[in-house]
Structure formats: structure tokens, C-alpha cells
Amino acid sequence: MPRTMHPSREELAEIIKLATDLTDPGHPVSVEQLASCADEEARAPLLRLCATEARRQKECVRRMAGINERLSEQNKLLTGEPLIEAVFIRAAENDKAVVFARGHRQQVAVDAGVDARALKPGDGVLLAKGGAAIIGRCAASLNGCVVAGFVRWAGARMLVEYGAGQKELLEVPPGALEDPAVAGIEAGSEVLCHGEARIFLELLPKAAGDHFSILKEPPSVSGSDMGGMEDLYQRIKTTLCACLLHGDSARLFGLSARPGVLLAGPPGVGKTLIAKRLAAELKAGHGNCVFASVKPGEFASKWYGEAEARVRAAFKHLNTHAARGLVVLYLDEVECLGRTRGFAPGGVHDDKVLACVLAELDGLQSLSNVAVIASTNRVEMLDPAFVERIGGSIIHVPRPDARTAAEMLKVHLPEHMPFSPNGAERHVTRSALIEAAVALLYADNAPASAIAKVTFTDGKQRVVLARELVSGRLLASLADAAKRRAHDRFIQVGGGGIRVEDIEWAAHETAERMRRLLTRENIHHYLTDLPQTTQVLSVDPVMPPGAAEGPPLIVPRPIQDDDWIIQLLDPESQP
After folding, report:
1. Distance CA 113, CA 116 (A)
2. Could you tell me if 521 and 575 are in contact, meaning their C-beta atoms sit under 8 angstroms apart?
3. Which fold has domain 84-138?
4. How confident is the model over 62-119, as pLDDT tens digits?
């Protein structure tokens, strides 16, 4: 039987201390008493067990004391007067601070245990009962915080504008914003503020894409993509490159150092394609050329002054690159940007943006390596000063005629595609497809030729034909529809290719889409020969012979001032 180990002198001292803590202080246990018990071999294990239990009970007592203390503190919070959350604004004199609490500003003391120097405007703080002093910090609450747009400085204060157009003056507490000259704050910059306290909190950083730039690499466009527009393109290229690439000789003849041209024509006829091809060829021939494209609404902003700031930022990037290379600046649908002043939808605001653009275009006059190309659907809506800044050269890009449409369809239906019949008859089939599509869109007696009947307020009528609406974009859509139908049949049945009936079906579908597209409100947008002042009473689709006529399509439109006269004279009319 193994011999039981006796407790050491140190263990006995620990046991005595534990026993003394857990027993009546008036009757302590002496070392001699415990030592005499430990001399008996049989009692040693029991003594060790007693010591272990004493330690466990002491730990339990310690934990219970901690729990009791926490419960006591929670009870004080629940039954006592609550602390007050506030927003720190700024430090004041005599160890005091200005805070916003319970709907108003107040000056309070700062407890000695709070480091006031570490507090920043907008930090959350806790006020003692009654709100007399700051006794601690808490998480900053977002209640009352709003995002606004910077408008301008008003002395030491900041004028901002909220989304609804409401403007407010904000206090800028010390330390909330570094030197405004280097902080990057400008008109339209987003700032975080406390709307109720009326204080500026911080300048919100711009996202990666907010640093406005219009510079892009020229797209890959070649002459084979133009489809029948080569003569027009060469005319435009000659007009621009005469000054762009031969600036010295142009100045010798008194020509403008900066070339520019205004492309006028309906949507989808290839104006953008012309600008892209010019940039691509300049890039290929001279190496260093960028394509700067401005689309409708690119400069628009809901914040006061930000649209002008974007214009200046965009042209700043353009001027920087123009100092070391060629730039093709393309302004798309400029009737949205350069509308005659006084008639713009945005009133004075849009007029200011146009004035800013005109000033920047004036700044490009001395740059001979910047070509400006603008495109529009409505020349008559443009401000004369804007047309003069572009260069005064207006080139009309017409809708494609039958020959040009055939060339464009050759681009969208290349020879390598599967046709049916294929093989040796591939070229014959492809030619038949293109001829069928052109005939259906351009022949006066074709079933799909008549699209809509336009009735004017003077009683006159006009039939809109398909060829008056054809564009390069529409022809691409027609070819895609035929290819998609042939592909679906290829998946289901297998074999074969694009057939003549596919292109005929696509032409009829395209004509039907034109009929649904034209309305009284957009007819001027598609018929550029129709004066803007001409009042249209109705636009009714013309159904082809044999087509099933459904119920008339009623397009909602705003009520005009003269509607009551029309209805009075002709109650059956549906304008």
C-alpha cells in the first residue's frame, strides 16, 4: 500500500489562512492544532479535500460579491434619474463646453475625469443628472445627422443646401475642418451636418468615380463599320483635320486654330460612330490621342453650383492632356446642354451651366490640337453663341437611303455567317436577304411601308413612311432580329441558316415597333423636317393590309390648353 504524503509546512499555512477566513474570527485555528491532526496518516487526504473545498467556497463568495455590486449599480440606474446623452459642439472658456441636448444648446462643465481635448465636434457625451456637467463619453448618435451639399461660404459660416432645396447656415466648430483652401471643399461637395444643432461635422470623401473626367481611350472603329457613310465621313474628316493636323498653315490663311463641326441629324444615323472613328484613326496615325465624350446630363447635378464645377473639372483634364497630345471632344445631343438661353427647362440654373461651357470653349480657341464635334437632333433649339463656339460649320447627317441601307446591312450580315441556302449559293442568298429588307422598308407599295398617319391642328394630314424613320441603329436591330430567329430554329431543328423569310419577318416586326413608337409627344424628335412650332393633333398607326386590328392604343399625354375647343367642335376626336 503506497504511503500517503503529509502536507508541507507551506500547505498547512495556506489551510490555516483559508480556515481562518471561513470560520468565526473569534475562534481561529492554530498551526499546532492543524499540525497535530496532520500527523495522523489517515486524516491527510481529508485535510487536503477540506482545503480544496475552502478555496472553491472563497471563489464563490468573491463572485457573488461582484454580482451583487453590479446589480446594485443597475438598480441605481433603473431607480435613479437617468443620464443625458448630448452632442459635443466645441470647448468653451473656464473648463466648460458647448453641447446640444434636449433640443437646444447649453454650456456645461467638464468633469475632471473627462479629457476635453480629445473631444471632437459631433462626439457623443453623457451629462450628469440635471445636465450640469459632462461626466463621460458615449457612442455618437446619427439622430439629427443629415447629408447636404456645400453652396458657398458666408463669412465664417457655411451655406449648405439639402435635397429638397432648403438652404441653411451652419456653424463650423474649431477643428471640424482644416483650411478650406486645401480641404478640397467646393460647390456641390457633400458634407455631414447636424440639422438640429446646425453645425458642420465633416466633409464626406468623394467616391473613386466622383473625380470628374471625360477622357477615354478611343474605341476601336474602322471604315468597314461605317456601311455606306464613307463619303460623308471623309468630308467631315477633311473639315477637322485641315486645322487639327496642319495648324500652322491654317493660321497662315487666317483660319481658326481650333477645328470644330456640328453634326445635325435624327437619332441613330451614325453621328457618334463618325466621332469615334475619327478618334481611332488619329490614335492609330499619331499615337497620342484621347476621346473625350460628353453625354446628355453628364454635367447635371441637384446641388447648386456643382454642374459648373463639373464643367470646369472636365475641361481642366482636357486642357492638361491637350498640352501633350491630340484630343477629340465629342458633345452628344447638345440640345440638352446648349439650348437657347431663356428657354431651358432648368431656367437660370441651366443658363449658368451653358455660360460656363461657352467660357470653357473660348479657352480652347488657342489649342490647335483639340477637335470639337457636337451632335444634335434639333439645330433650331441651340443657342446661337453655342453654334459659333463650335465653329459654325454645320454638316447634316441624313437618314440612310436605299443604297446606304444595303451597305449597312452588309456590315451586320457578313459573308461568314450561315445562310440558307448556303455553300455555293451563299452570296446569292445574302444578296436576296439584303434586297428583301431594303424593298420592304423603302418601296412605296410595300406592306410595311406606311407607318402612321399624322393629323395636324389645321386639319391637314401626313402619312409617315418607314424610310423616313430608318437609321443605322434600326437596321442593326432588324438584322439582329433575323439572326436571332434563325438561331432559335437552328437550336430546335438543327442545320440551316438565315433565310429570306427571316429577314421579311424581322422587317415586319421592325415596322410594327415603329408604329408603337411614334406618338404625338415624340413625333418632332423623329421627323426632323417637321418644324418645332407645328402642332400635332394625333398620330394614328397605319395597319398593313390583312393585319388583325386590335383596340386602339391610347397613349396618356398631358392635357393641352386648347383640348376643350377640339372636343367641343368634334366630340368624337381622340387627339
Report:
1. 9
2. no
3. OB fold (Dihydrolipoamide Acetyltransferase, E2P) (2.40.50)
4. 888 888 887 777 666 555 567 888 999 988 888 899 999 888 899 999 988 888 888 8
